[in-house]
Amino acid sequence: MSGDPKSIRSQGRYASPPCYAAEVAPDYFDPLAVDPEQARDVARWRKAERARLRDARMALSVEERKAVGEALAGHLRQVLNDRFGGARDRVFSAYWPIKGEPDLRPLMAELDEAGVIVALPLVETKAAPLTFRRWTTATRMVRGDWNIPVPPPDAPIVTPEIALAPLVGWTADRYRLGYGGGYFDRTLAALKPRPFVIGIGFDAARLTTIFPQPHDIPLDLIVTEAGAQGDT
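Structure tokens predicted for 5-formyltetrahydrofolate cyclo-ligase (232 residues):
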């Protein structure tokens, strides 16, 4: 299935094909309207897009990735200052970069030193919402799921007020293409109150649509090396 979604079927309350999510209100995507064959088509398309976008970012040089990370950190710092007064004493969930993701660890250290309560997400129970544990520059990390460094089991559990979501792809209406495990959407659905969620990714990873499904939750803001996207 290519970027042209003509093979995606629609029925019931879905718009007539081609079914572009930008033209369909999110509340159209309810569980009762899901066509199983359409869902399989969407899953295959997303898998192909994930591979394409990950290959593209892995092809970047170290210098290019560093420049993206620095630009992103500057824009994110501005967002935190403008919206949250710098976020001092707030719980801010970041991420440990993997697979060519933008590296914001220098900003994490800066925020920790400025009095922000920095946390990292980790999988403690399969197919369950993520757990968030406190991170500081003094934290001795351990290996978690997929060998991602995470805070140790004795690090305090916290609830984020602001959370970063690493993006494989993203859309103008702030939908996220992730890695396909469903952990982040599951976590957002469970957190009460829901944190302000900022998607972090490459500007070149913008998509026309991800064909939102009932479990997909739009983010509050997208930030790339080009700046804040979809701010409302």
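The chain has four helices and twelve strands.
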